[in-house]
Amino acid sequence: MLLTAIRCFVAFLILCSTVALPSGTLAQAVVQAEDGIVNQQQKTIEALAKKIDDLEKSITANSEDDAHLVEIRLQLEGVNRELLASGQAFRPRLAEISARLDQLGAPPEKDAPPEPSIVTQERQDLAAEKADINAILGAAENLSIRTSGLVSKIADMRRELFARLLTKRYDLDLTLGSEVSDAVSTETDKFYRTVSSWLHFVVQFKLNSMLAATFFALVAAVVLLIGGRRLFGGLFEPDPTIEDPSYLSRLSVAFWSTLTP
User: 3 pLDDT exceeds 70?
Assistant: First the structure.
């Protein structure tokens, strides 16, 4: 019985010491936590928003430059990753706030005894901090959606640039026609000079060699033609004694009559 009384007395002292803590200590801890992460991430998101504004202006200024559009798209994708990292930085703090609010519980009903003011103040501070964090997360989500829209816009602009490049037309005027005419005349003169120079050289210096090469080529062609027909004539000349040749025989005659000549 005495041990139970001692335990109750110790618990009462601990409770009194907890309630007797100055409310400024808890408030200061909450303010420091809020200043440590909320203000930091808010500044980060504001800087990213300004960067997105600058990149959007750059898109308009370089709408005809595919290389710059690719570079801007890469920068936007980097901004999107930074926004995602900024949102993930709030997760530990949100988990702490939710756990502490669960510990504090819901506010007492109207008919229930009032709770200590320090508990009420802490709950209000935690709820305000959570609301600030949710507002920053909403701004980060809006910026992420805006960044994704700009990336899609760049993709459409690059696709349009590529299509215009493929279907680009050139105006044909009299100046271009005269240039084409001059180019055709120049190339025709070059071809005529080349052929005439070759014929002049062959007739003057290589006439006998050319005639001899032509003669032997014709002789070889006659020999091959006559000898080939005598040697391979049986392969592609149909046999008149066979009235109904087989399919393979007709196919063989067609093949050799095409290949041998």
Answer: no
Angle between helix axes 117-166 and 66-88 (nearest 10 degrees) is 160
Sign of CA dihedral 133, 138, 139, 143: positive
Comparing C-alpha atoms, which of 146, 148, 151, 144 is closest to residue 84? Answer: 144
Q: What is the pLDDT of residue 171?
A: 62
CA torsion, ordered 110, 115, 121, 127, to nearest 10 deg: -60
pTM for this entry:
0.47
Instruction: Say if residues 90 and 137 touch (Cβ distance below 8 Å).
Output: yes
Helix residue ranges, H only, the chain: 2-19, 23-61, 66-88, 91-104, 117-166, 174-205, 207-236, 247-259
Q: Are residues 53 and 146 in contact, defined by beta-carbon separation less than 8 angstroms?
A: no
Looking up tokens 């999107």, which residue turns up?
A: 80
Yes or no: say if 191 and 183 are a contact pair by the CB < 8 Å rule: no
What's the pLDDT at 175?
65
C-alpha 2/C-alpha 11 separation (Å) is: 14
What's the burial of 222, exposed, middle or buried (CB within 10 Å: 0-12/13-18/19+)?
exposed
Query: What pLDDT, in 10s, does the model give residues 44-90?
Result: 888 889 999 999 999 988 888 888 999 999 999 998 898 888 878 77
* pLDDT tens figures, 202-256: 888 888 888 999 999 999 988 887 877 777 666 666 777 777 778 887 888 788 7
Distance of CA 181 to the CA centre of its chain: 46
**Residue 92 CA to its chain's centroid (Å):** 33
